[in-house]
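S.,

As promised, the pyridoxal-5'-phosphate run. Input:
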Amino acid sequence: MKKAYVSKQQVEEIVKKYPTPFYLYDEKGIVENAKAVKKAFAWNKGFREYFAVKATPNPKIMQLLQAEGCGFDCSSITELMLSKSIGACGENIMFSSNDTPAEEFVYADKIGGIINFDDITHIEFAREALGGKLPETISCRYNPGGVFQMSNGIMDNPGDSKYGMTREQLAESFKILKGYGVKHFGIHAFLASNTVTNEYYPTLAGQLFELAVELEKETGADIAFINLSGGVGIPYEPDKEGNDIAAIGEGVRREYERILVPAGMDDVAIYTEMGRFMLGPYGALVTKAIHEKHIYKEYIGVDACAVNLMRPAMYGSYHHITVLGKENEPLDHVYDVTGSLCENNDKFAIDRKLPKIDMGDYLFIHDAGAHGFAMGYNYNGKLWCSELLLKEDGSVEMIRRAETPRDYFATFDCLPEYAELDKIMKEFE
Ligand SMILES: Cc1ncc(COP(=O)(O)O)c(C=O)c1O
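Predicted complex:
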C-alpha cells in the first residue's frame, strides 16, 4: 500500500504559508535511498551515481545528493550551469546529450565535464568547436539495435531509438579518438526505461562488459568506466513490487566478476545515471479539490493541472492518489480527477476508485518526484507551482517559489508603452 509522507494536519499547516498546488519532496526518503544506492555498489571502487538532472532540476535537491557523493548527468547547457552553480564540475559531471549544439560541448569541456558522444559524427563536430583539442577522457553511447530482451520478455526497442552508435561505429570512434590523443574511454547505454525488475542492470551490464572486453582487444583503448545510465524504475501502482537496489548491485557485481575480472579489467568503474529511482517516490504533487461536476461521469476538479505534472496526459501514466485525512475510508466513489487546461487529456486519474471527495480536500499525487515538475510548461498561461522540501525535522523549506504573472510577462520585450504592466500586475497582486 502506498502511504503519503505527510498528514492532512501537516498540509493544513503548510498551506497557511504556501498555497496549493505545490511539489513536496521528502528529504529523509531522498537521503536514505541515495545511501542505499551507494551501499549497493560499494564493491566497485570507482562507482559513482551521476544523478540525471533532467529528472528534478533543483539545486537544493541536487545538494542533498551531492552530499551523498553523487555527480550529475546533464543533457543541456543550463543543466551544466545548474551543476556548476552548486560547485559540481570536473569528473563530477557527465554530459550525456544528443543533437548537441557546439557551444554546449564547449561549456561542458570548459568546466571539465566528461563528454559522452551520442554519435560518431559528433567527434569532428566537437573537435572543431573545441579548437582541435579533445579532452583525455571521452565516453561513447552504444545502441545495439534490435529489441532489448530479458528472460521475462521484450523490455524496449533500441532499434527504433535515436540514441547511440552501432557496434561498428563505436569501435571506429574509439580508434579515431585514440588517434586524437584521447587516453581513457567510457561506454554508455540506456536501453530500457522504467524497468521494474532487478535484472535490468545486470543484463545490460553483462552485455556492456562483454563489449568492453572485445573493444579493448580490438582497439587497444583503455576502458576506464561503464555507464549503465538510467532506466531503473519505480512501482507507480500500489500493488506492484519495487526494485531491490541491493540485489541489483549484487547482480552487476556477479557479471563484473564473471566477465571483466577474468579479462584483467578489474579496475573498470561503474557509473549510473538514475533519475526516477533516485527521486520518483520522494516527491508528490499536492493539490486541492475545488470543483465537482456531475455529468455523464463524476469529475473532481483540482487546482493543479497537466502543466504541473504532464505524465498522465502525455503517456497515460498511473499516479496513485491519496486523499489526505481519508486514508482509511472505503474507496466507494469513482472519479476522473481533472485539471483546468483546455485539453481533454488533462486528467490525473480516470475512473479511479477513491473515497468520497469533498471540496477543499487535499490530494497527494504520489511518485511525482522525477520527471514531474521538470516537464512543466506554460500552456493556457498557466504558471509553474512552487517546490517545497519536507525536512527530516518536520519543517518545510521553499526550494523554488511559484511563478507569478510578472515572470510570465518577463520575456515580452515587445509590450507597447501603453500596456501599463505595473498597473495590471498591481491589480492582481
Ligand atoms: C541519458 C539519460 N540518462 C539518464 C536518464 C534518467 O533516466 P531515469 O530517470 O529513467 O533513471 C535519462 C532519461 O531520460 C537519459 O536520457
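The chain has a mean pLDDT of 97. The longest helix spans residues 200-219.

- D.
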